[in-house]
Design a protein that fits this description.
Number of strands: 22
Largest sheet: 8 strands, parallel, barrel
Structural class: alpha/beta
Radius of gyration: 25 Å
Helix content: 25-40%
Shape: globular
Strand content: 15-25%
Length: 559
């Protein structure tokens, strides 16, 4: 089909794309909205996007700090029943999996100092509450993965308490002990007090010892950790996010850590077979591996999925801050070639911020309005580019948080805003929301009613990603007109997403200035856009007027 007329998108708000009722291709009249159009809050796009059929093809995960998410019993602390109560919210958003930050008994707010790997933190509820959460999530085709800590335990963990008692204790081999003090080594608090133990992260978190990586599965610590993981598999859990995988052995770049991970994954995956309540063959296991691309890729020898910190910190964030987006797709393609050389079925877990980083809204900078628009374009890129996206709770609202500022972790783990404060009984109160308020951010209830809200940008792009296989799981390709030498169009990124016969062209203007962008290709139909992109088509030639922080997706002629 050839578009020889001007398509004008009447946007009253973000992603309020209009759909054509009928139009002769030769008619120069701009296409207008259909009478009685559907409410924008409930519509993926009023353009030519296919309607969302409810299938979660994109496998988007949502990260939850339970303490700050939703309080079900009024004690001020978020809990597992609170998460369960919000599953319909997540289901409507298009989430296919949730990652719960540590829910085990611990002696901290963050939970990474695990005391008992098989017990639920009483602040969060009971084991029965966790089992109910898993069951209810599965009813909505939502997977549940738990944060799992293989590098260290709490100093209050019974294993460590026993290990300190004597050099002959059966648990002594679970940890690293030495009679010589060195950097990162701490004096044993009781028992064998003339010894030191290794605690790289903190004195309250002694490092576990698995012995040589080649035979780690024979160690007592490995046996206890796999036993704990199997315990949760038996409760219906679908997998794990493995914390700090580059620290399990001291060298980040040796083969030891990937070897350990491969043995852990293989044993758990074999145990998982036939147990999935959602019908998945393999257990889901993703590692936190904050390394440069080439070094990170080595860890794919052990795990099928890894978080890609570089894609956000070094690439997308740079593009948005510097209005310099053109080479982002090329860099992502190059990254994936490196990963594929190590594991052909790799899963590239992409994200903006998470619980260990300053929030995206703070990172993109600018005035209040500018940071909001930058968050919208960041979401649009995340949800149209390659990878398996993760969304940190509150990211869809544009929550603020500077981890480097006074307050540290708490700044990026403030309570979720569900409704205006006066009527928000589910908003946790264990800490005050000083950075994220109704006035500065806006609650879910308020943002859901505004087509201009960041929440609705996330919702719409997640539905697009879930609807189109090319966006959900397709390959990424550079367009044939890509000119590596030219920087005239550096504020725009353009890339194809392809799956089987489906081919989509995606374009994003990541800058705060309007630009013109021209390309040639066989466009079948425009699918959706953000911020009022207009274009003129003459045969195969198309000229776009792209407002600041705008996006558009075209469906190309079938291949």
């Amino acid at each position: 089909m050839c578009f020889n007329h001007l398509f004008r998108l009447f946007f009253a708000a973000v992603l309020l794309s209009v759909g054509a009722c009928s139009s002769d291709p030769g008619d120069p009249t701009p296409v207008g909205p259909c009478p009685g159009g559907t409410d924008v809050v409930d519509e993926v796009s009023q353009y030519d996007a296919r309607p969302f059929d409810g299938q979660k093809r994109a496998d988007v995960f949502y990260e939850i700090f339970v303490r700050s998410f939703a309080d079900s019993d009024g004690d001020g602390i978020g809990d597992l029943n609170g998460v369960t109560a919000k599953l319909d919210y997540l289901d409507d958003l298009g989430v296919a999996g949730i990652w719960l930050l540590p829910i085990y008994t611990c002696n901290s707010e963050h939970g990474y100092d695990v005391i008992d790997y098989k017990a639920v933190n009483p602040d969060y509820g009971t084991l029965a509450d966790l089992e109910n959460l898993v069951a209810e999530a599965h009813k909505r085709n939502i997977r549940v993965i738990l944060d799992f800590v293989p590098n260290h335990t709490s100093h209050l963990c019974p294993w460590f308490v026993e290990a300190c008692k004597s050099t002959e204790n059966p648990y002594r081999s679970f940890y690293h002990f030495s009679q010589t003090e060195a950097s990162g080594w701490i004096a044993v608090p009781s028992g064998t007090t003339d010894w030191f133990y290794q605690g790289v992260f903190d004195r309250s978190m002694p490092d576990l010892n698995y012995g040589p990586a080649a035979s780690c599965e024979q160690s007592g610590a490995f046996g206890e950790l796999t036993s704990a993981a199997k315990f949760w598999v038996d409760k219906g859990v679908d997998g794990f996010r493995l914390d700090a995988v580059k620290h399990i052995y001291d060298s980040e770049i040796s083969a030891e850590n990937p070897t350990w991970l491969g043995k852990f994954y293989t044993e758990l995956n074999a145990y998982f077979q036939g147990k999935s309540q959602l019908g998945f063959k393999d257990i889901y296991m993703v590692g936190e591996c904050w390394l440069a691309t080439a070094q990170m890729a080595e860890y794919y020898k052990g795990l099928p999925a890894l978080f890609d910190f570089t894609a956000w910190q070094d690439r997308l964030l740079y593009a948005i801050r510097n209005d310099h987006a053109k080479w982002f797709p090329k860099d992502m393609i190059a990254e994936r070639e490196v990963f594929a050389a190590k594991r052909t079925d790799f899963i590239q877990a992409t994200k903006l911020s998470n619980h260990d980083e300053s929030r995206a809204r703070t990172e993109v900078g600018g005035s209040h309005a500018v940071s909001l628009e930058r968050c919208k374009i960041a979401a649009a890129v995340l949800l149209t580019s390659v990878g398996s996206p993760y969304i940190y709770y509150g990211e869809e609202l544009g929550m603020f948080g500077d981890k480097t500022d006074k307050g540290g972790d708490r700044n990026v783990r403030e309570p979720m805003l569900w409704r205006p404060k006066a009527e928000d009984a589910e908003r946790p109160t264990w800490i005050s929301s000083t950075l994220n308020t109704d006035l500065g951010v806006g609650s879910v209830a308020v943002q859901a009613e505004s087509a201009k809200s960041l929440y609705n940008v996330y919702r719409k792009f997640m539905r697009l990603r879930n609807t189109y296989p090319a966006l959900a799981e397709g390959a990424i390709e550079l367009p044939e007109w890509f000119d590596d030498a030219s920087s005239d169009d550096k504020q725009v990124m353009a890339f194809y997403r392809t799956a089987q016969s489906e081919k989509l062209l995606v374009l994003h203007n990541v800058s705060g200035t309007q630009c013109s962008y021209a390309f040639e290709g066989d466009v079948a139909a425009p699918v959706a856009d953000m911020n009022g992109v207009t274009f003129v088509s003459e045969g195969r030639s198309h000229t776009l007027a792209m407002p600041p922080y705008s996006s558009i997706i075209f469906e190309m002629q079938a291949r």
